[in-house]
């Protein structure tokens, strides 16, 4: 059974940093691309970032480019999202999602086709 468990969410002041983690089990992490997706209160899901299976390629939504860094540790079955210079508009529940292929899919304008398996999410709140 595929399981994804996010952690690391917290309250942080604007300009602060957080590192999110996603523990994966029930499948071979090194065979699949992985994404981070977020959902702000009252809004639909927003794709944030994707990383290919071996970690050699990454892509980011324009809203987080230069501030967020996605990474993975396949040996320890973990996905990470390092976030710096956080803004109030980054407030959301953050989810990791498993893709069904090892490569980054073609997509247009931030509308990445995220996979069907998501974790339960971790809350990030940015406010003063």
Structural description of this entry:
The structure is a single chain. The chain has 128 residues and is mainly beta. The protein has no helices and eleven strands. It has strands spanning 3-7, 11-12, 18-25, 34-39, 45-51, 58-60, 68-73, 78-83, 92-98, 117-118, 122-126. Strands 2, 4, 5, 6, 9, 10 and 11 form a seven-stranded mixed beta sheet that branches. The radius of gyration is 13 Å and the shape is globular. The mean pLDDT is 96.
Task: Please render the helix and strand layout as text.
Blueprint: E1 3-7, E2 11-12, E3 18-25, E4 34-39, E5 45-51, E6 58-60, E7 68-73, E8 78-83, E9 92-98, E10 117-118, E11 122-126
Strand content: 35-45%
Number of helices: 0
Helix content: under 10%
What characteristic shape results from the CA principal axes? globular
* Class per helix and strand makeup: mainly beta
Low-confidence stretches: none
List how many beta strands DSSP finds. 11
Oligomer: single chain
Largest sheet: 7 strands, mixed
- Rounded Rg: 13 Å
User: What integer is the average pLDDT?
Assistant: 96
Order of helix and strand elements from N to C terminus: EEEEEEEEEEE
């Amino acid at each position: 059974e595929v399981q994804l468990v996010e952690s690391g969410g917290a309250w942080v002041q604007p300009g602060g940093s957080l590192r999110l983690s996603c523990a994966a089990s029930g499948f071979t992490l090194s065979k699949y691309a992985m994404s981070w997706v977020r959902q702000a209160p009252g809004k639909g899901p927003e794709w944030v970032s994707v990383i290919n299976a071996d970690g050699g390629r990454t892509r980011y939504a324009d809203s987080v480019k230069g501030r967020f860094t996605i990474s993975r540790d396949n040996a320890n079955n973990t996905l990470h999202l390092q976030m710096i210079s956080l803004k109030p508009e980054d407030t959301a529940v953050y989810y990791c999602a498993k893709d069904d292929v090892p490569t980054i899919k073609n997509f247009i304008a931030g509308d990445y086709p995220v996979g069907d398996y998501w974790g339960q999410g971790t809350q990030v709140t940015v406010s003063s």
